[in-house]
Amino acid sequence: MCGIIGYIGKKHNVTDVLITGLKALEYRGYDSVGIALWNEDMFKLIKSAGKISHLEDKIRKEGNMTSQMGIGHTRWATHGEPNDTNSHPHRVGNVTLVHNGIIENYQELKEELIKKGYHFASDTDTEVIASLLDDIKKNKENYLEILQELTTRLRGSYALGIVFDQDKNHLYALRKDSPLILGIGDKENFIASDIPAIIPYTKQYILLEAGEIARLSEDGIDLFDTSLKPISKKIQQVNWTMEQAEKGGYSHFMLKEIMEEERVLKDTILPFVKDKETLLSKMPDLKKYDQVHIVACGSAMHAGLVGKYLIETYANIPVTVEVASEYRYKKNFYTDHTLVILVSQSGETADTIAALRLAKESKVDTLAIVNVYGSTIARESDQVLYIYAGPEIAVATTKAYTLQVAMLSLVALTMAINHKQMKEEEITMLLEAFQNLPEILGGLLEKQESYFEIAKMLDGSEDVFFLGRGVDYALAMEGSLKLKEISYIHSEAYQAGELKHGTISLIEKNTPVIALVTDEKLAEKTISNIKEVKARGAKVILVTLESLDRDYDFCDQKIVLPVVPPFVQPILVMPPLQLLSFEVARRRGCDIDKPRNLAKSVTVE
Length: 605
Ligand code: F6R
Hints:
By secondary structure, the protein is an alpha/beta fold. The protein has three domains: 3-238, Aminohydrolase, N-terminal nucleophile (Ntn) domain (Glutamine Phosphoribosylpyrophosphate, subunit 1, domain 1), CATH 3.60.20.10; 248-442, 3-Layer(aba) Sandwich (Rossmann fold); 447-591, Rossmann fold. 36% of the residues lie in helices and 23% in strands. The strands form four sheets. The chain has an eight-stranded antiparallel β-sheet with strand order 3-2-4-1-10-9-11-15, covered by helices on one side. It has a seven-stranded antiparallel β-sheet with strand order 5-6-7-8-12-13-14.
């Protein structure tokens, strides 16, 4: 977790660059924040627990500080509570640094350094890195060699921005398993955890790889490999506009991102669905696989559950879906015909990366579905399918989830074709359904006010249940997660038929139940289960299809979805529920884009 920004140059005010970058990176963590600026003859630290505005107040009190170099950090606590002392940058002797990641052997290093006389003010692993560097510096003068030795001593994940008082013309960066990019400007250069932090200043960047060391000056960037041999690397071009990375007139990033779903669905699926030949030429060849493991975390795992339903139902291939943090430590059964699909918006989720590496060590083919171009999962997987969601800033995923479901649907269709499980007419019909889908989704989003109206039903509720059977249960899980993570209302998703085996005892007068009935084959069964909760006093919000819409006496409110072929129906279910959750959270005054305790990109185990 955590976000890093660094700047060297005279073209812009360093403090402004750092603050702008930190605001763009706040999605990576936002419990404390800090900067270090070169000031006269040393780096000066300004740090604060809480939001960036607190840091800005402190900076204002310091008065005008002119500088040509600085580093900044927004934190998501891993070692020690979020307070001023634990926040970054950390400074020991003449070394000042910011860190994203976790040092696994920090305790062992700390004990060694304590024996050498070091004292530690914070609880962090980062202060250990600063002390270690200070210690290495006692026997070495060349900064590159100092950093090279550092990499041999650290175990774990890190992206580091480092400055030395005696070398005020250089900013150093290195990484392993945590992301870091180098922004290239004209007479100015940057380091950052992610692209939005540098977009206002430059669109050119380099991806730093594990083990590489970067030395930035005002005039350029020198890169070195692990043996300190100079290397050159491809310069990448950012294809996002600043406007895409900002709120675009919406009150919240989450709302903006939901409302973008029609466009990003078009961008992502239309290139594949012109005709069968186009689909097969753009998709990997999936003929070989007779077993699939889908591995992901959180919402991406929920998207995987929809993928499982589609691949099993239409391609007739068994699929397991596992949470990555479990998968990486359990026994997995592979054959030469197993495909492991990793689903991740950020492409940097630590557990999903570990699952990917496990599969690769076992020599199993891997396919990633990822949003962030050039992210670790995208780079390390055998094959990648990108979703084109653009930057997703709100911590709770919305548009990326919808695109993950859409991309998994295309994978399912390809597998069904590859395994000869589908007639030509059905393939043609489904490709047409995909082509029409973005516009239908757009029509659903236009009805946002009606979902906002329904949201009022949840005013004052502290417990909500989501019910569904089959694929509706997979969707209910995501609906429930979305609601609880942003509104802090306790919510559970249940298989409709399972509730009466215990949990129904929690249903009392006015408990809201959001019941999903979008699979015509299972509708009658689920409706019987809804009647059971209604009879116990529940208030029911029914999410169903136009074809199933009746004047039901058991439902208090309805969200009615247009009928599309069942294969693509799941893609339409979540957007209205995302808008409903958004409004529930807004009515409760929650910090929707940055829910408490969460971070956008979970780069720790
Ligand atoms: C929930 C949410 C998370 C992510 C999960 C995986 O709204 O956003 O559950 O889906 O942390 O993240 P990625 O997709 O980046 O691997």
